[in-house]
Amino acid sequence: MRPFAYGRPRTIEEATRVVADDGAMAIAGGTNLLDLMKLQVETPEKLADINRIGFGEIEDTQAGGLSLGALATNTATAVHPRVRADYPVLARAILSGATQQLRNKATNGGNLCQRTRCFYFTNVDQPCNKRDPGSGCGAIDGVAKLHAILGTSEQCIATYPGDMAVALSALDASVDIATANGEKRTVPVREFHCLPGDTPWRENVLEEGEIITAITLPPPVGGTQIYRKVRERSSYAFALVSVAAIVEMEDGLFTRADLAFGGLAHKPWHDPRVGEALIGQPPTSETIDRAADILLADARGFGENDFKIPLARRALHAVLEPAAEGAG
Amino acid sequence: MTAHMKQDKPDRSNRLDAMKQGVLGKAIPRIEGLAKVTGTAPYAAEYAVDGCAEGVLATSTITCGKVLSINKDAVLGMPGVIAVIDDPKLITRAAQGTADEAPQQGPKTVCYWGQPIALVVAETFEQARDAAKHLAVEYREEEGVPLDPQAVEPEEQEDETVRQGDLAHAMAKAAHTVDVTYTTKGHASAAMEPHAAIARWDGDKLTVHASLQMLNYNISELADALNMEEVDIRLISRFVGGGFGSKLGISEEVVAAAIAAKELGRPVRVALSRQQVFQCIMRRSETTQRLRLAAGEDGRLIGFGHYALASNLPGETFVEPVLQSSHFLYGGENRELMLEVARVHRMTAGSVRAPGEAVGMPALESAMDVLAEKVGIDAVELRLRNIPDQNPEEDLPFSSHKLAECLKQGAEAFGWDSGLRKPRHSRDGEWWVGTGMASAARVHNIAEARARVTLKADGTALVETDMTDIGTGTYTILAQLAGEMLGLAPDSILVDLGDTRHPRGPGSGGSWGAASTGSAVYVACKAIREEIADKLGVQETDLDLAHGTAASGEALVDLLDGKDIVREGHYEPGDIEDDYTASGFGAFFAQVRVNRFTGETRVDRMLGAFGFGRVLNHKTARSQCLGGITWSIGVALTEALEFDPRDGHLVNCDLAEYHVPVNRDVPDLEVLLVEERDPAASPIQAKGIGELGMCGGAAAIVNAIYNACGARIFDYPMTPERVLAAMPD
């Protein structure tokens, strides 16, 4: 670990200023950043501890939705009565991630910004275009079991590892951002994370000096809400594949199917065509397979992770078959 | 005074059963438990030592070759950096268990990716770690070295080879045959406490606090590495946060700390990172195993074949002893067993949690399940029919044998239903539910040991030995043993462990600690009893001691009359080892559910029934079994070391990515202790227990997966993608 300067801004304005002008890196729960600093994957010269700038509240919005403060913890969010009642897919997604201890410390904003767990990214003695642009991708011909099958590039096949953002994507939540010049902007969660392309080091759309202040959930839509995480061990393991689903049925036909997938790509994967293929259809195996065909049309495995292609299909069945029963 | 016992004959006197204190075997909580859970038990890195400098190992970023130069000057200019040490005496691998001599030395030669090549010492740990990462090293890399165990010509381990009768012929004529090949992935010990050492010198005398399992061997290994005499070294390992084989031999941090402390004239601490523990201590080898079983109509084996391939670095003597229990578990007069090793440049392979049976038994016991199905008889019944009367390869009786009782009692307690053998008999929503079972076996090991017991004039006692407590309960069981023999409550006995100044024993490993050092304590206490009996004018066999008082009414403190009685016990196994086959036995039963969509497997419940001689403490023994069964779940479902195919480095090198079972993976576990007295195993009639709980348990889970969903899988661990690939539509 390198020596670093540590500061505690008291306001969002101060925080965005030190991040923009002094090149400080914001730290909140630190559950990911501290590990990466010990490994020297991250070597910030300055840390801005933003835990004292506010934005820890969870509040109703005028539109009837819910605003999740960026600095509210994952635990506080998952147990919030309105999250549990109106957005159960989010509560379930958060609770399926990490461990109780980590969730107690991790914040909503930080969770969105967590880095990939690719073995080659976290090992500074191995090549990684994300960590060390131009050094190559260790994973493509290496151990790539956890890696992406959708939206990959020649540069990077890493996955976004989180669960919370997958549910937020299905819910079509948006990210509220404070900019360096004192303004605010809002980005849909579905557009917040980037695909690797030729810039694998760029994982989300935050510009220099920008800090997430909140996540806004739209008014609740009801329906059957499911978060299904397929993993090798039943806790403290990243998803092989995960599915966030909000499903409604009427007269035995899908009237709503908002779906997002984790473990498949560099970002929570939302393809509107997958849900659209289900609307107006009965929950038969054939219908679900057609939706899976759309989801996986461009999927490409890298040997060790080939299994994710059939597994994603099966996970979709696992979610939609019982959901249809529950919603019908 | 030393009392000596060499056990050449079975000891059927069961003297411990005649004792009156009534404390041995009782489920008393660990003596040191409170200190551990309140953080007051110091582990190796936690001793406060004035002026201690911090060392961090720099490790190789090539697989094989030579270190041509290290640019020390560049890092010596960094803040706080004191020294870069690449002394040729530095060891580059951990010593194998009971090596008794230094492992590979000389950090200029690199044999695996991640191998230590130097030690960077600084004022703070963070400074040393940063400098170690910045060390500019020039290598001459050797290209094209073998990394894939399947791609090299293996070497036969001739000592392991058995050819009896004609297996090929038996396979050809048998009514039922099974010929299947299994693979297992590598495993990590994954002890909670990472390896660490603090070394300090007082003139030419060296003291090292380290996390080690076998001090008696470790002191020789360290002395050899440093060209020193053992009398000038003191090793201290009072508390060890789990060993699981990874701390059997000295490892790189111990020697590095000692060399640096000498060179710098101040104490030096070297603590490995979690990643370094994974990458430069020990791995369990992956294995490929072919099982050939030939049985008659009734399922009785007429032929038994077990071939195994493991790997290790060139020059290492250790080869995963996969066949250890296969030699005697089941009969079959036509036998062919062979173990081979592939030499590859992955990190050192060594002892990890029940070396041998941990992976050999799951393969064998899965194959037995295939056979039971072919024969059309119950899996428990198949095992019962194949228990041999004596060791089928040597003309040796078993010292004791509880397999049949464990199978029967385990089946009864679990509610084993021999009628539910067709896959997919039961579904709960989207989960297939099934059951499976397997036998357990683990060879019994024991070794020479010494311990000193002092019965103090005040009526308390002191037990001193270099034996370690690696979380197993040694402190407690030795207090119980001495208390039982001397008629004292365990809380009036101080057990002082983990210090080479004490009489030496074999330490903890191979499940031999309790029986070996326990026997030395027994021998010492017996000698003290003789002294007391003398004072009373009775035979030792007639002496009844309880609660500090002899049955005749005299209090011990009065008899001692202000004088301590000190005896050293010296136990040697003797010829008995050649006269018997000694092993722990048991049986596992598991119920699992397999998701019909995703192939995820979760264990619903599991039971293990074990016979391992005398139970010294029901609580710590049961805990050992619970831990073993938990390991079984890891072997069956989640644990797998992954190596990069191009440079052989271990990629999943932390506890987030190397998946030991977590609480939620471990359901209610039931342990049945089928208590017995094994007269040939040790004078305390106890055998090893630490490892037995994982020797075969994974097969019970895997057999249950088949019973649940019809997927026969031959590659451990049974991850969702493997289950799905094998699951019928």
Automatic annotation (TrEMBL), chain A:
Keywords carried by this UniProt record? FAD, Flavoprotein
Concerning Pfam families, the annotation shows: CO_deh_flav_C (PF03450), FAD_binding_5 (PF00941)
InterPro entries in the record = CO_DH_flav_C (IPR005107), CO_DH_flav_C_dom_sf (IPR036683), Diverse_Substr_Oxidored (IPR051312), FAD-bd_PCMH (IPR016166), FAD-bd_PCMH-like_sf (IPR036318), FAD-bd_PCMH_sub1 (IPR016167), FAD-bd_PCMH_sub2 (IPR016169), Mopterin_DH_FAD-bd (IPR002346)
Q: Does the keyword Flavoprotein apply?
A: yes
**All residue ranges annotated as the FAD-binding PCMH-type domain in the record:** 1-222
SMART domains in the cross-refs? CO_deh_flav_C
Q: State the signal peptide span.
A: none
Its recorded name reads: Xanthine dehydrogenase family protein subunit M
Species this protein is from? Qipengyuania mesophila
Q: What is the lineage of its organism?
A: Bacteria, Pseudomonadati, Pseudomonadota, Alphaproteobacteria, Sphingomonadales
UniProtKB/TrEMBL annotation, chain B:
* All copies of domain Aldehyde oxidase/xanthine dehydrogenase a/b hammerhead, residue ranges: 38-143
Pfam families per UniProt: Ald_Xan_dh_C, MoCoBD_1, MoCoBD_2
This protein's name: Xanthine dehydrogenase family protein molybdopterin-binding subunit
**Which species does this protein come from?**
Qipengyuania mesophila
Q: What is the lineage of its organism?
A: Bacteria, Pseudomonadati, Pseudomonadota, Alphaproteobacteria, Sphingomonadales
